[in-house]
Amino acid sequence: MQYYTVRAFTILLLFILSACGNSSKKEKGTSREKTKDTVKIDSAAIKKAQKEKEEEKRFVLTEDNAIPFLFEYQKEHKEHKVRIRTSKGSFVIDLYEKTPYHRANFIYLTKKEYFNGTYFHRVVKDFIIQGGNTDMVSTAKRRDSIGFYLLPPDTRKGYTHSRGTVSMPSSDDVANPHKLASPYEFFIVTAKNGAHHLDGKYTAFGKVVSGMDVVDKINNVPTGDDEWPLTNVVIKSVEIIE
Question: Which residues form a coiled coil (predicted)?
Answer without folding.
Answer: none
